[in-house]
């Protein structure tokens, strides 16, 4: 892309200024920044309009696809000559069941074989002998299809079993493609310790890589699993930065054995999670290779080394739900598009029921067909780097890259990732991000359809998978970062309400006291109904009332343990005290709530004195409020509320 001329940039600045004046006039005094500029979890300001001027000074814009530093991907024609690998994981732990599902999926369009081996806290295929692997891969043409074997820590036995299986089938190890990897660092982060010690596990990865360089040169042997950070609710910049930091640790381990980065680069395979922020995820994946190029060059490689590295992506688990689980199909579709536009080499898309640990044939087929739709029906293989040159995406890519590099440099000044983890620094960053995201979910600033927005109380939710393999026993060496999900706390509330309904024959009830005509009560009655539906409550009271006394009497007669007054700020000073006093006189045990929060602090105090227990509004912690109310009526135990 040629550098914009000063005249062109001046024209863009003039056009933007004119547009902004028009918008500010429409805002009628409301702050442009507060109303129209949003902040991502990474702290990046997203503007409502981007222009060519935003590209001024950005690096690498002249690089073409297939050229270092690979901002636009490693392939000159993108996916035109070969698309990404359809690398759908299979959740079966039993080798026979795994093989049955695998062969069916290969017949249905899958073109690579990912195998996660259970152990050290990692769920997957339960094999510890050659026979188990032989059963799982029966009928698979080794040397033809890429096979990706992944262990959490113990790489030596897995690699040995695979090479022995290939030999038994008469397939030369040199013909094997794919990867046989472990990432002890990721396991260390997830569990807080590594059985046998981290240093020994990293040395085993180096030993295997050295052996494979001669015996199986097409296999990738160093897997860097960045999904551990995303699964713990880290930001995109944290995921990228810690992936680079992990790569630096492995490169140092190889260098200590006299192995150059140029020899290691073709062995590297990075795995990233793709989340719900569409444009951020595209930018994250595009930013990765230029950042990796800087790291590899610093270790002595040529700028082209990053073009030899493989990038795998999987749809993240953090935003997937057990409630209204079919919405997961829509989530993985946009995430798949992010991954493809970001230029990944292989991709796993979660079946909508993956959280159950037992995805069925239908859910796997639907997920697999998303690959086919993107490639064959929607035509995303026809153009290399179709987002290249987008003012928005190029600017976002650059800003993500800069923030990522700052975190990476910070980790390096602290002695590298291992030293930083021992001090607890990366954990603190991720835990802060997780707390921010949890607060956004609890207040519904971050919506999850079917969970904290538009819940379906008539559905039969999916059941969560049983607990996976135990983490290695013993004292932890660092603070672990276990995986979490955005919807988990709300799901616990819904499941408690469902259990209450099964025990008592009825859902928890809340009475909505609708005051006056529809225009007066509907906005807050609708808000209140949606608020309580998140916790599995059934709303009562469809009629409206002319007097506060009548509304209070109806609320008391309903038998609901909770009542919400729904009206307007203008009417509350007259209606609210009468409603609360009348209802509390009839039933002192009832919880009385007001829909809304008066701006006058003195009025809040007076309403509480009249009998209101609390207020529900857009800024309230929905999860905390619903948990409190469910416990109050006996639907939720303290243990459940803390899970």
Could you explain how this protein is built, in words?
- The protein is of the alpha/beta class.
- It folds into four domains: 6-55, no CATH class; 87-220, no CATH class; 221-347 and 361-465 and 473-486, TIM Barrel (Alpha-Beta Barrel); 491-641, Rossmann fold, CATH 3.40.50.
- It is built from 23 helices and 17 strands.
- The chain has helices spanning 6-27, 32-36, 95-107, 130-136, 155-168, 184-191, 198-215, 227-231, 236-255, 261-264, 278-298, 327-342, 361-377, 391-413, 417-423, 425-442, 488-504, 518-533, 548-558, 572-586, 601-610, 622-632, 638-641; strands at 38-39, 45-46, 85-86, 113-116, 147-151, 178-182, 219-220, 222-225, 268-274, 310-315, 346-348, 509-515, 538-540, 544-545, 562-566, 591-595, 614-616.
- It is globular.
Fraction in helix: 40-55%
CATH superfamily of the largest domain: Methylmalonyl-CoA mutase
CATH topology of the largest domain: TIM Barrel
User: What is the 3D form?
Assistant: globular
Radius of gyration: 28 Å
Percent strand equals 5-15%
Main β sheet profile: 6 strands, parallel
Number of strands: 17
Poorly predicted runs: none
Mean pLDDT: 95
Q: Tally the structural domains.
A: 4
Question: For this structure, what is the CATH class of the largest domain?
Answer: Alpha Beta
Give the helices and strands, then pairings.
Blueprint: H1 6-27, H2 32-36, E1 38-39, E2 45-46, E3 85-86, H3 95-107, E4 113-116, H4 130-136, E5 147-151, H5 155-168, E6 178-182, H6 184-191, H7 198-215, E7 219-220, E8 222-225, H8 227-231, H9 236-255, H10 261-264, E9 268-274, H11 278-298, E10 310-315, H12 327-342, E11 346-348, H13 361-377, H14 391-413, H15 417-423, H16 425-442, H17 488-504, E12 509-515, H18 518-533, E13 538-540, E14 544-545, H19 548-558, E15 562-566, H20 572-586, E16 591-595, H21 601-610, E17 614-616, H22 622-632, H23 638-641
Parallel strand pairs: 3-11, 4-5, 5-6, 6-7, 8-9, 9-10, 10-11, 12-13, 12-14, 12-15, 15-16, 16-17
Antiparallel strand pairs: 1-2
Helix pairs in contact: 3-4, 9-11, 9-14, 11-12, 11-14, 12-13, 17-22, 19-20, 20-21
């Amino acid at each position: 892309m040629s550098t914009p001329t000063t005249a062109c940039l001046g024209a863009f600045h003039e056009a933007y200024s004119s547009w902004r004046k028009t918008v500010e006039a429409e805002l009628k005094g409301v702050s442009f920044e507060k109303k129209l500029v949003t902040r991502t979890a990474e702290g990046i300001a997203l503007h409502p309009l981007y222009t060519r001027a935003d590209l001024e000074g950005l690096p690498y814009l002249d690089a073409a696809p297939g050229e270092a530093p690979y901002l636009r991907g490693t392939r000159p024609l993108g996916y035109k000559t070969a698309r990404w690998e359809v690398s759908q994981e299979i959740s079966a732990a039993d080798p026979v069941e795994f093989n049955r599902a695998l062969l069916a999926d290969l017949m249905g369009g899958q073109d690579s074989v990912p195998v996660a081996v259970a152990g050290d806290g990692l769920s997957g295929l339960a094999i510890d002998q050659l026979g188990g692997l032989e059963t799982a891969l029966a009928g698979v043409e080794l040397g033809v299809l890429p096979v990706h074997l992944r262990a959490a820590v113990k790489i030596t036995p897995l690699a040995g079993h695979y090479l022995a299986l290939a030999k038994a089938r008469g397939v030369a190890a040199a013909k094997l493609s794919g990867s046989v990897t472990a990432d002890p660092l990721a396991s260390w982060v997830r569990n807080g310790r590594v059985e046998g010690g981290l240093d020994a596990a990293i040395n085993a990865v180096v030993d295997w890589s050295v052996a494979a360089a001669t015996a199986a040169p097409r296999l990738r042997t160093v897997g860097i699993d960045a999904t551990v950070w995303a699964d713990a609710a880290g930001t995109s910049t944290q995921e990228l930065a810690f992936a680079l930091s992990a790569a630096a640790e492995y490169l140092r381990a190889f260098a200590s054995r006299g192995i150059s980065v140029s020899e290691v680069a073709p062995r590297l395979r990075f795995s990233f999670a793709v989340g719900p922020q569409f444009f951020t995820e595209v930018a994250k994946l595009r930013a990765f290779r230029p950042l990796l190029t800087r790291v590899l060059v610093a270790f002595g490689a040529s700028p082209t080394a990053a073009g030899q590295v493989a990038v795998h992506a999987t749809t993240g688990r953090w935003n997937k739900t057990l409630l209204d689980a079919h919405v997961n199909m829509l989530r993985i579709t946009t995430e798949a598009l992010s991954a493809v536009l970001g230029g990944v080499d292989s991709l796993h898309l979660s079946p909508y029921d993956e959280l159950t640990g037992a995805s069925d044939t239908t859910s796997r087929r639907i997920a697999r067909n998303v690959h086919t739709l993107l490639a064959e029906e929607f035509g995303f293989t026809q153009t290399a780097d179709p987002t290249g040159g987008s003012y928005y995406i190029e600017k976002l890519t650059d800003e993500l890259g800069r923030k990522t590099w700052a975190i990476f440099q910070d980790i390096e000044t602290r002695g590298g990732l291992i030293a930083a983890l021992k001090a607890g620094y990366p954990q603190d960053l991720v835990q802060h991000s997780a707390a921010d995201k949890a607060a956004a979910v609890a207040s519904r600033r971050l919506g999850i359809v079917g969970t904290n927005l538009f819940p379906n109380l008539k559905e039969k939710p999916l059941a969560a998978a049983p607990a996976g393999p135990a983490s290695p026993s013993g004292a932890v060496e660092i603070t672990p970062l276990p995986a979490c999900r955005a919807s988990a706390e709300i799901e616990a509330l819904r499941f408690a309400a469902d259990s209450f309904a099964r025990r008592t024959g009825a859902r928890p009830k809340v009475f909505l006291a609708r005051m006056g005509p529809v225009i007066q009560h509907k906005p807050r009655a609708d808000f209140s109904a949606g608020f309580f539906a998140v916790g599995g409550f059934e709303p009562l009271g469809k009629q409206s009332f002319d007097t506060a006394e009548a509304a209070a009497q109806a609320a008391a007669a309903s038998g609901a343990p909770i009542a919400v007054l729904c009206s307007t700020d203008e009417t509350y000073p007259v209606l609210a005290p009468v409603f609360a006093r009348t209802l509390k006189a009839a039933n002192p045990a009832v919880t009385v709530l007001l829909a809304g929060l008066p701006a006058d602090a003195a009025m809040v105090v007076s309403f509480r004195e009249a009998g209101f227990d609390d207020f529900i509004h857009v800024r309230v912690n929905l999860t905390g409020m619903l948990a409190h109310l469910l416990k109050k009526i006996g639907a939720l135990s303290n243990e459940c509320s803390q899970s």
